[in-house]
Amino acid sequence: MTLLSPFPMRSITLRNRIVVSPMCQYSAIDGTPTDWHYDHLTKFALGGAALVFLEATGVEPRGRITHGDLGLWNAAQEAALRPLVARLRSRGAVPGIQLAHAGRKASSQRPWEGSKSINPDNALAGEAPWQTIAASAVPLAPGWHTPKAMDDDDIRTVIQAFATAAERAHRAGFDVIELHAAHGYLIHTFLSPLSNRRTDGYGGSLPNRMRFALEVTEAVRRVWPADKPLFVRLSAVDWEADGWSLDDSVALAREMKARGVDVIDCSAGGILGPATTAKIPMAPGYQVPFAARIRAEAGIATQAVGLIRTARQAADIIDKGEADLVALARELLFNPFWPLQAARELGDQDYATWPEQYGWYLKRRVGG
Ligand SMILES: Cc1cc2nc3c(=O)[nH]c(=O)nc-3n(C[C@H](O)[C@H](O)[C@H](O)COP(=O)(O)O)c2cc1C
Questions:
Q1: Ligand 1 pocket, 108 CB below 6 A?
Q2: pLDDT at 224 over 50
Q3: What is the structure's pLDDT at 342?
Q4: Distance 181 CA to ligand 1 centre (A)
Q5: Cβ contacts of residue 65 below 8 Å, gap of 6+?
Q6: Is CATH 3.40.50.2300 correct for 7-365?
Q7: Are strands 18-20 and 148-149 parallel, antiparallel or unpaired?
Q8: ∠109-111-117 over CA atoms, to 5°?
Q9: What is the per-residue pLDDT across 153-166, written as a single tens digit (0 to 9) for each?
């Protein structure tokens, strides 16, 4: 197992272990991609990453973070994604999509507009706020929308929305779905005791808090073809006192594996948003131990993410068996060709993953 070795999952084989982590662009119109998405994503496929995830994509209008989020709740969005998926595939990458519901972090401004809850004073023309939903009626932080605590109808509706979006993702041509259960968004609000105050079957004990996440997973797995892989992104820990713990993540990962999840993508944090007092030990690879422990104890493939910067660092994560895949975000913004550069640094000279328009020349120069 090396960074550059292929990774088979169900009927899909990744050309290496390097994944483009989902990155919101807040640049969609009515949930559909724009030219920006083509420019932003195509360069990662050309750059040699094996799997390119599209950003958090809302499964219903209430599930968008901002008015600029991608969505996958209607036929127009499905149709608009199809050529983008085809573009990524034609450039050598496996296309993936992160399906998401923003929960109590929804109805906010784009980051460059302030990242605050939308209200009548700051709303742009045509961009009204909307009623958010969450496990409990507890705002993210002072000044944020108070979400409606989801009743049984809301729960059924959102589970169905995830499943319908998964069917649309299949028809649009995606090969991989990642369910976003991290970063304080809707599913995470059920998991964490800091945001879940429910007294019904979806709150209280760990099995109850895991119920919504597992029901979403089951509903998606039921409609997502058996030959296509399913990932789940978790916040492996809340980084808060009395919050969701790594032990909880191991328990959840076991349950998800039993329900046909292939990879746990191990991120962390986000449950209290700007109200956090967490001291996060930000250092290269700071979340990798989560991927290692979940992989070892739940017996499921993991994806490590978070300040993975150098080729050697990424290769070591795979060599040591800490994770099966590495996902990068910021480093790929600096250098979309990071995977091809990593291959060169690690001594790979067959240029196998280079676009042939570039690779033929490089191969000749090394005598191939
Ligand atoms: C511009 C940008 C947008 C992001 N959007 C998302 C997203 O849509 N979904 C998600 O789960 N994480 C998102 N993240 C977090 C990244 O996927 C990743 O987990 C995080 O940046 C840590 O990886 P890095 O140190 O390689 O950047 C975003 C990060 C960046 C930089």
A1: no
A2: yes
A3: 95
A4: 14
A5: 24, 26, 56, 58, 102, 105, 106, 108
A6: no
A7: unpaired
A8: 30
A9: 999 999 999 999 99
Strand extents, DSSP E, 101-139: 133-134
Write the CB contacts of 352 (distance below 8 Å, at least 6 apart in sequence): 15, 359
Report domain extents, the chain: 7-365
Reading the block at residue 362, the tokens are 């490089």
Strand partners for 180: 233
Count of alpha carbons within 13 Å of 75, Cβ hemisphere only?
0
308 lines ligand 1 (CB under 6 A): yes
CA atoms within 13 A on the CB side of 353: 29
Please state the φ and ψ torsions of residue 278, each to the nearest 5 degrees.
-65, 145
User: Of 177, 268, 163, 184, nearest to 231 (Cα)?
Assistant: 177
CA-to-CA distance for 321 and 130, rounded, in angstroms?
A: 44
- Please, are residues 332 and 47 in contact by the beta-carbon 8 Å criterion? yes
Q: Decide: helix, strand or coil at residue 233.
A: strand
Q: Which atom of ligand 1 is nearest to the CA of 180?
A: 11
Residue 307 Cβ < 6 Å to ligand 1: yes
- Summarize pLDDT for 304-320 with one digit per residue, the tens: 999 999 999 999 999 99
Q: Where does the chain have alpha helices with state H?
A: 35-46, 75-90, 152-172, 186-191, 206-223, 246-258, 288-298, 311-319, 330-334, 338-345, 356-365
The helix (H) or strand (E) run that includes residue 264 is strand 263-267
The set of catalytic residues is: 185
Nearest to 174 by CA among 182, 161, 165: 165
Mutate to test the pocket of ligand 1, among 18, 21, 187 (most ligand atoms within 8 A of CB): 21
pLDDT exceeds 50 at position 368: no
Output the pTM of the full model: 0.97
Average model confidence (pLDDT) across the chain: 96
The span from the CA of 41 to the CA of 16, in Å, is: 18
Question: Residue 20 pairs with which residues in a beta bridge?
Answer: 52, 328
Q: Please give the structure tokens belonging to residue 15.
A: 């050309």
| Tokens 């290496």, residue located | 16
